[in-house]
Amino acid sequence: MISDDREFTAVGAESGCACVRKGSGSEQDPYVISGWVLNGTERVNAVTVFRTTVHFTVSQVVIWGDQLSTGIYFERVENARIEHSRITGNFVGVYAYLSRDVVFVNNTVDNGDFGIKLQASNDNVVSSNTFVAIKSVAIFVRGSSNSVTGNNVSEGAFGGINIDGTAGPANKNLVEGNTVSGSSTYGIAVWRGASNSIRRNVVTYSKGLGIALTEDSTNNLVERNLVTESEADGIIINEGSTSNVIRGNTAKGNGDGVQYFDLRDRSGGNVWEDNTYETKNPESLAQLTEASTGVMRRASGLHRCANGHMEAS
């Protein structure tokens, strides 16, 4: 546990945290916590850091949890980096609250309930991580101007990536180049978010929805994604979400073409153009190209659960 900047001290110091292996805390020479094997429990996080602004890196650590634990907990932390680590068996692998400029890159998070949760946290990076067998949501973002890129989510998460604006702004986030497969309810979803970009992602074999914009999500861009083999709708906009642009996506093999479709818009006031699809709803939308878009209605949407994530209805 590190409770402020003063507890980061140089190697060999008689005060501060003995966990530090090297570094001075500058941007060019961050403090480094590395090489540890740590156990988290319901009452004690494996790593806890409060109220710091010095630069530090957590690297090459292994964190084991008891299914009730939090692996790494940050509160009011800036200038941190977590890399090349494995975080397994925790209720939440990484939780960052009121934190910014945190980089989470090249890690493996598995067999937990949530992978990483950003709560009221802006300007962070979640990139090139692997999430396996996460029960709830692999990447849960409540905040703005975060970058979620190049991650892989597999083996049955309830939801792959959730941009969630129910407890504060969730605007101008970038979700790009991620792969989500086999989710049980949705691959990627935006809830009450604005001006987010969902680009070049691959969502396959969802047992529910592929990509969803829901509950007053506006001015979002969904572009050049590949969405295939979802059991429900491939790309859907639910009631109240308007002024979104859905452009250049490929959505095929989703739904059954009767109740569920490749493309669906339940709201209207959105722009659909240059998408490649096999089925859409409703059929009344004017096609902009030969393989264009739809504005759609749907019997199956998303609703908010008591635990804070979304579920198909």
Quick tags:
mainly beta; 22-stranded mixed β-sheet; 35 strands
Q: Tell me the strand percentage band.
A: 35-45%
- General form: elongated
- Structural class computed from helices and strand pairing: mainly beta
Helix fraction bin: under 10%
Q: What do the pLDDT scores average to?
A: 91
Please mark out the parts with pLDDT under 50 across 5 or more consecutive residues, or reply none.
285-300
- What composes the largest sheet? 22 strands, mixed
* Structure annotation, total helices: 0
End-to-end gap: 42 Å
Radius of gyration: 20 Å
Tell me the total number of β-strands. Answer: 35
How many domains is the backbone divided into? 1
Polypeptide structure, described:
With 313 residues, this protein is mainly β. The protein has one domain (31-312). It has no helices and 35 strands. The strands form 3 sheets. The protein has a 22-stranded mixed β-sheet that branches. The protein has an 11-stranded parallel β-sheet with strand order 3-6-8-11-14-17-20-23-26-29-32, with no helix packed on it. The protein is elongated. The N and C termini lie far apart (42 Å).
